[in-house]
Amino acid sequence: MNKLLLTLTLCLPATVFAQDRLMGKAWTTRSVVMAQRGMACTSHPLSTQAAIDVLKAGGTAIDAAIAANAMEGVVEPHVNGIGGDLYAIVWDAKTKKLYGLNASGRSPYSLTLDEFKKRGLTHIPATGPLPVSVPGCVDGWFELHKRFGKLPMEKLLSNAIHYAREGYPVHDEASISWASMISRLGNLPNVKETYAPNGAAPKRGEIFKNPALANTLEKIAKGGRDAFYKGDIARTIDAFMKRVGGFLSYRDLAEHTSDWIEPVSTSYRGYDVWELPPNGQGIAALQMLNILEGYDFSKIPWGSPEHVHLFVEAKKLVYEDRAKYYADPAFAQIPVKELISKPYANERRKLIDMNRALTKIDAGSFNVALKDGDTIYLTVADGEGNMVSLIQSNFRGFGSGMVPDGLGFMFQDRGELYSLQEGQNNTYAPHKRPFHTIIPAFVTKDGQPFMSFGVMGGSFQPLGHVQIIMNMIDYGMNPQEAGDAPRIDHQGSSEPTGEKMEGVGEITLESGYSYETIRDLMRKGHKIGFGLGGYGGYQAIMYDAKNKVYHGATESRKDGQAQGY
């Protein structure tokens, strides 16, 4: 029955989404939002509003992004929160330079590889205490604020505190994830008390309050980052973890630090695309762009079999390198410069057959010694020209199921992404950062900011980044059209957690690709499937330097909002 439904779905004609709009691509859902003094694009209207409030009060783009992220943890706990990690790329208008922040946490000192062996595990589970690493979000806020902030933290967190205490109506996407989480994790300590105080997950439109989270945010606003990592909050976490058989300790929290790092880039047809180096997967987007730059897409129509085929084959090649090399650079030598070089891309490109899908690929060699995720991405720009690209996540859904007593949040399960196979770059070790999927991005043109953007969604994120860049640069779309365009995903590549690619994997396509394209891809040996809702979420701000106007775009598949003034 499922195969029949799949076949019928794929045979349907391309869906037109525009509802007879007067301009734009057929799939465009709304116009780009344009403004000059400030812009905020987030995945929830209340978060966008919190950012705009801060901008109007004289805060910087970075201040506004912190306020929006704090609000996101309140209104979208199914995808982010202070139990997770954070990365950011900041364009500073004064120095005319990009700055990168890695605010991801490390594994517990007391949890060893031998512990996993004793338990007979070959993969770290998604729930329980084992995948819990130090949450880096709060430290990330204060690092950003110390360097680029202007308004006091009490002001920045005030909206989030208010809505956590007074409540807010639960939106569509959150309500679906919420019900699933309570079904799966409701028997774990403090989960129902925190997220289903009335005995069931809140339904769409119902008011949800989280007074415990409001209290935690108040302590952070008044006491700073040390209130979380060295104060009563840290002691509560330590005691909770000991009680549930966990390994995260007061020492792990007290010794946590974020790192300011240099973004890395490649040029794509005259535009410089910037990502953060590992432990994240951002350079996968740069590697893909380098390979794809060798093809003339002015002669390859969007949505054609050639377009999809080349995109997927480039992804397969790059994800073998991702599986082998990407990890915590404090524990492994990662040839970043070589991986994102044009000569390397030229060599890898030779492996692509225009007429046949690759089935077996090895990673590249150098002389040196993922599954779906739930995330929020937001971007903010201010009247002084500062822009921030920020991404934050719990990894899977709400996270690990571990909710410390009375604190109102759940810990991430990011530690699931270590490999338990010895001798690999991403093999588990104490006090080590895991391979990370969440990646912010930025584009410059002639040394000036062009676009701050990101695409959520686990292993899909580099694919999403590349599609946005190609849609705009190769196919002339505006930021909203580029995000609304039907997306391409591919699953089945080798993973940093140890899994190996077998066969061609599976391409999944959103509605909007023609039957002719699907048929021709199958003739090239690709396996084609249909995915529902697994294509990430997107926000972007493009800067028109000539007219000094920000162009904001938001994800049509989720509950987001772009707003400027």
Automatic annotation (TrEMBL):
Modification after translation (UniProt): Cleaved by autocatalysis into a large and a small subunit.
Name by which UniProt lists this protein: Glutathione hydrolase proenzyme
Gene Ontology BP term (one): glutathione biosynthetic process
UniProt: L-glutamate binding residues: G458
Catalytic reactions of this protein: an S-substituted glutathione + H2O = an S-substituted L-cysteinylglycine + L-glutamate; glutathione + H2O = L-cysteinylglycine + L-glutamate; an N-terminal (5-L-glutamyl)-[peptide] + an alpha-amino acid = 5-L-glutamyl amino acid + an N-terminal L-alpha-aminoacyl-[peptide]
Pfam family of the protein (one): G_glu_transpept
UniProt keyword annotations, A-Z: Acyltransferase, Glutathione biosynthesis, Hydrolase, Signal, Transferase, Zymogen
Subunit structure, interactors included: This enzyme consists of two polypeptide chains, which are synthesized in precursor form from a single polypeptide.
The enzyme's E.C. designation: 2.3.2.2, 3.4.19.13
Signal peptide, first to last residue: 1-18
An example Gene Ontology molecular-function term: leukotriene C4 gamma-glutamyl transferase activity
Pathway, per record: Sulfur metabolism; glutathione metabolism
